[in-house]
Amino acid sequence: MKRCLDDVYPDAHCELDFTTPLELLVAVVLSAQTTDVRVNLVTPALFKRYRTAADYAGADRTELEEYLRSTGFYRAKANSVMGLGAALVERFDGEVPNKLEDLVTLPGVGRKTANVVLGNAFDVPGITVDTHFGRLVRRWGWTAEEDPVKVEHVVGELIPRKEWTMLSHRVIFHGRRVCHAKKPACGACPLARDCPSYGTGPTGFEEAAKLVKGVEKDHILAMAAPR
């Protein structure tokens, strides 16, 4: 299944736009309860206005909230990024740390966020257990664990460490494009042959094909088409 994911999504990547570790950290915090697409609409202006951890720490709350309003929960998110900025300035000289044990001490940063930052900003392998990742690995029978930390450790035992970051991207891509929560596109899934949950969604190719999303749709359908 892992090799199939490699073939289906060779170019999988973090779908949040960023150029620095700080930008990625802020973007991941803002992505809670909203889409990466929405965050990417907000961050160009945000990152132009707030360039350093000190900028966030010293931000005018009302102004910052306006930048974040369309992401939802904007007051809580303003609190989070201001707190992040302050913690980075106070404890890490304004720089984003590159160790998991340091990242998770920052306000609003859990293992999921830390692993996204490590894998994509610092090339430190990490498994990102978001809702898509957890749902899929349970559907596939890789683990029955519900707790994200336990899921991370179990899958980490199955897959070589150097593959962790790309595996995370590919599983998340598959969850967004094919293996949907309520109605997975089973009949148009390249992994169908090996999936113990095959049949959770429609199994007819034509019906399932309508459920596949993303710019990779034609590639996915070509790999899954009946032969």
TrEMBL record:
NCBIfam families: nth. The keyword Mitochondrion does not apply. This is Endonuclease III. Keywords: 4Fe-4S, DNA damage, DNA repair, DNA-binding, Endonuclease, Glycosidase, Hydrolase, Iron, Iron-sulfur, Lyase, Metal-binding, Nuclease. Coiled coil: none annotated. [4Fe-4S] cluster binds at residues 179, 186, 189, 195. Belongs to the Nth/MutY family. Residues 30-177 form the HhH-GPD domain. Its cofactor is [4Fe-4S] cluster. DNA repair enzyme that has both DNA N-glycosylase activity and AP-lyase activity. The DNA N-glycosylase activity releases various damaged pyrimidines from DNA by cleaving the N-glycosidic bond, leaving an AP (apurinic/apyrimidinic) site. The AP-lyase activity cleaves the phosphodiester bond 3' to the AP site by a beta-elimination, leaving a 3'-terminal unsaturated sugar and a product with a terminal 5'-phosphate. It is an enzyme of class 4 (lyase). It comes from the Bacteria. GO terms for biological process: base-excision repair, AP site formation. Binds 1 [4Fe-4S] cluster. GO terms for molecular function: 4 iron, 4 sulfur cluster binding; class I DNA-(apurinic or apyrimidinic site) endonuclease activity; DNA binding; DNA N-glycosylase activity; metal ion binding. The keyword Metal-binding applies. It catalyses: 2'-deoxyribonucleotide-(2'-deoxyribose 5'-phosphate)-2'-deoxyribonucleotide-DNA = a 3'-end 2'-deoxyribonucleotide-(2,3-dehydro-2,3-deoxyribose 5'-phosphate)-DNA + a 5'-end 5'-phospho-2'-deoxyribonucleoside-DNA + H(+). Transmembrane segments: none annotated. It comes from Amycolatopsis vastitatis. Its EC number is 4.2.99.18.
